[in-house]
Amino acid sequence: MSDTKLVELCDLPYPELERFIVEKLGMKRFRVGQIWQWIWVRNVSDFAAMTDLPQADRALLSERASIRWPSIADVRVSGDGTTKFLLELADGEHVETVLIPSDAPRRPHDAAARMTQCLSTQVGCAMACSFCSTGRLGFRRNMTMGEILGQVQVARAYLHDTQPERPIIRNLVYMGMGEPLLNLANVMDSLRTLQHPRGLAFSPRRITVSTCGIEKGMKEFGESGLAFLAVSLHAPNQRLRGQLMPRAAHWPLEELLAALESYPLKTRERITLEYLVIAGVNNQPEHVRELARICAHLKAKLNLIPYNPTPDTPYRAPTPEELLCFEKALWAKGITAIVRKSKGQDIEAACGQLCATHEAQAEQKGA
Ligand code: SF4
After folding, report:
1. Domain regions of the chain by residue span
2. Can you tell me which atom of ligand 1 is nearest the CA of 212?
3. Mean pLDDT across 16-27
4. Ligand 1 centre from 286 Cα, in Å?
5. Per-residue pLDDT tens over the stretch 210-219
6. Does 6 score more than 60 pLDDT?
7. Closest atom of ligand 1 to CA, residue 245
8. What is the C-alpha separation between 175 and 351, in angstroms, rounded?
9. Nearest ligand 1 atom to alpha carbon 128
10. What is the C-alpha to C-alpha distance for residues 32 and 188, in angstroms, rounded to an integer?
11. Is 348:84 a contact under the CB 8 Å cutoff?
């Protein structure tokens, strides 16, 4: 049978896997849970290694299905422990994912160090934010559920093979390449798969999906309760938002904020507003006043992320003093503002940077 007819099992949410295994392949229903665990918990992609399945079932699976994870095209480890992967997908496209060590001090009962992983959801991005390398790549295509979660499986295998301490991936943020709400069906399937009790059993409280503010999909995502929401604000007024995030600004800021006011939140849950601090652009006293007005109406906290400079942009990172001054001014207005350290600056860890470098090198070679 030709390779193109193989069914990719890591693209199937549990109910679809069940239909394929039971109805199409005629295998017993209890085999579905076993196969699910081999794929998601044991991270095994070779059917021959699925030793609790009968030989005949393993042979049938090899004939009709495949489990293909992305391959690692490049990996860079920063002095601060941040690890960035350039992954190659089956069709030769590339995406990035980043592992970030937890800042939280290890507690005595913690068996292993903890990591946060940043996941991509699209190859390239259509949103064209002016500060972002991915935005300059343009949109190529949506990632499938298997490709989104393949990032987690590749990182788990890498940590298992390379780090004697075997750190665990504790938190996931959908904040890499692409706009998650523009690939909503695959993103929601990936969240359900991550949280499946017979699989990785991730708590929704450990997953955040970050959007630049897409009207279509926000309500459906909020009602699903599958993850926390973070919104990339980056500008406290429509004019500046139009300059920094021209496509996101098609949905007027006023309307985005009104949607966030009625966004369904659980008790004690707050929306995270991401704010990339770009020196001289969005950290001025008038911006503090505008942010105060915005935050007064929302159950939200503000994450301040110092801009991580990327080539070919007119922007500059704030100095530590500028950042502190901005943070203090926000606190003085009663805003909960927390500075998130920018990590991996020595390994091109800003979103899309490694991919852009890879493409430029490939172009040079082809020239
Ligand atoms: S910041 Fe996010 S939404 Fe904007 S272009 Fe980059 S990847 Fe897309």
Report:
1. 3-66, 71-366
2. 3
3. 98
4. 25
5. 999 999 899 9
6. yes
7. 4
8. 8
9. 5
10. 21
11. yes
pLDDT grade for 5, boundaries at 50, 70 and 90: confident
Domain 71-366: CATH superfamily is: Aldolase class I (3.20.20.70)
287-334 pLDDT, tens digit per residue, is 999 999 999 989 999 999 999 887 778 899 999 999 999 999 999 999
For the Cβ of 124 lying below 6 angstroms from any atom of ligand 1, the answer is no
pTM for the predicted model, two decimal places: 0.93
Pocket test for ligand 1, best of 122, 130, 131, 134 (most atoms within 8 A of CB): 134
Read off the pLDDT of residues 62-98 as tens digits, 9 standing for 90 and up. Answer: 999 999 999 999 999 988 889 999 999 999 999 999 9
Give first-to-last CA distance, the chain, whole Å: 38
Ligand 1 centre and the CA of 129: distance in Å? 6
Beta-carbon neighbour count of residue 247 at 10 Å? Answer: 16
Amino acid at 31: R
* Residue 88: active-site member: no
Would residue 223 show up in a list of annotated catalytic residues for this protein?
Answer: no
- Both tokens assigned to 246: 């021209």
Residue 175 Cβ < 6 Å to ligand 1: no
Does the domain formed by 3-66 have CATH 1.10.150.530? yes
- The DSSP element (H or E) to which 259 belongs, if any, is helix 253-261
125 lines ligand 1 (CB under 6 A): yes
